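> @MW can you paste both from yesterday?
MW: sure, first one:
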Amino acid sequence: MHYVCAGKRPEYAGAATCSCSQIYADGVEGWVWENVCNLLGDRDRLLALADEWVGATAKKQVDYSSRLASLDQKIAEKSDTIDLMTATFATQVTRQGLTGQAAEAAVERKLQPHYADLEQLQKERADIELWQSEAQEADQRAKDLHALAQSAHGRLQTFTKEQQAEWLALLDIKVKVLENPPPMRRGLACPVGEWFREHERDVPTLDDQVWGRIAELEGFPNGGLVPRQAGGVAPRTVLEAFLKKARTGASWPALEAETGSKGLIGQWKRWSKQGRWERVMEVMKGCDGVPVAPRHRLPKMQMTGKVRPGVILAATSAREAGDQEGHAQESGPWAPACCSSGRPGRAAGRWWP
């Protein structure tokens, strides 16, 4: 499965198309889910953020409530003042001999400053109410985030592909490719890298002390630091090449050009067949190391999304309720999208912009 650049699809017959390589879907989706787990799986980080939001909005709630109470009192007082002034002004204009519409207009002119003050107070109250509502929503989001942190901790790594696809849809994940993808690798997977993956081990770092033990164990002449025959490669150089291949994913031709040898593949086969590789790795067990290189190198990418705890929690609760009833959701807003490949969120010819 792979992603294909949208530029490879011609806009019209004869139009130029993009020549960039495809991207392996497994690598992209693994990278995306790893980033999601790093964010949502960091319970301490989410709890600290939630506590910060809850504390800030709680303080605002007190301020808003106090401000609203004060404004309500001022609005009531201003309304009473307008009622009193209306009666007073009506008496005054009557004494002045004004009647009908002329009297009403005169009263309105005298009351205009008071109406303006009342309108300003009402506007302030509407603004405070809006801010209070936003603060309450933020407070609820913080509480939802707190619950999400508790719910997601320790669970994300065990999610099935269907659950991953569902969460990615809820998070509205978007991935932008920032550079041309590296060429797709053809043929068999790197045997050195596959050994580390199968044994679930990091690629160890070779130092002089560890090499001394290896050279003694294998009986390499001259400490294994010089070629055993003319035109050959020193055993230590061979081992360093194997480790570099597993660590970086470099090709055999590139390593052979670097070491000056054209027989590294043959060396690997001999080391494996004779059991030397297993013995060397046993000596290096416990050494500091780094993760093995991915099977397929990915281009630089940027991921964006939206953390909406309430939505995620609601969807998760609905799914769990459905599971408890003995059936999975097959439709509705939170059902995982499937394609003809039979795998959630997958397609043989996806297009990315």
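MW: second:
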Amino acid sequence: MLSGKEKGRSLPSSPGAGRGRGSASLYDDEVFAAFRAITISHHWDGPCESAASFIRRTGFGPSLHRHDGGEIRGTPRNTLPLPQIIEEACQEAEIYKAAGVDGLIVENMHDRPYTVGVGAEITAAMAVICATVKQTCPRLPVGVQILSAANQDAIAVALAAGLDFIRAEGFVFSHVADEGILNACAGKLLRYRKQIGAEHIQVFADVKKKHSSHALTADVSVAETAKAAEFFLADGVILTGAATGLEADPKELEEVGCAVKIPVLVGSGVTLENLKNYLGANALIVGSYFKKESYWANNIDPDRVKRFMDYAAELRV
């Protein structure tokens, strides 16, 4: 995959260079390059937290899936009060920050079974959780994803909580997910982002997303899907395997990297053992690997995080 310089964009000397120009276009070279230098793919589950570390212009990020009970009130398996969920989310953020990650993302993955769109109680809770996590890690980029496909809610939460990006599913093309049919949302989402003054918040879009059937678009390749997301003004695209914890195809990463000029992130199945397969990505979402026994719903294993980040540090050189 082409590096930032090979794609005609120079990287800043530090992660914060070029930021803070709120009136700049999302595709201004300086703003875009600065983002590439701190790119994060993250993914919090339940709300969980994920982090990304920086390796050769490539972010490597762990995603956390907290233990059962951390579901938000109103969902079938909730048992914990919101203050305890917030406290545990911040504890997870501290673990990742200490490990040297480049960023974090909050996601309500434990709120099973998912619905297409969420109630106001979920959006409100996520805003409070995200704001507190951002206060805990003020120097790290922090993002949010709200399941399922509650992308406008995620933009609103990100703006209210002072976050930097969202992860969006169902951005282009329709597909059948386990919670129902998801239709393309790019037009409505980016108009909403404009209307509420949130254009500084980046949108990273899943393409051919996991846990879904893509028979409706079987004649559209993953590279063409990524090109459509780029054409519809996504700030980056995310590749995944078929399900949480399953590897993305390195060949697809190469194909998509050659097809688009925006950042390409890998969003599932990254481990210490296969990390080298994804050095062509701009960022990696690491979730299950950082949990005990590599199972997404378990607590974080700090030793796994440290081993991964130590190895990532070696690859940065």
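> thanks! The CA atoms of residues 172 and 236 lie 13 Å apart.
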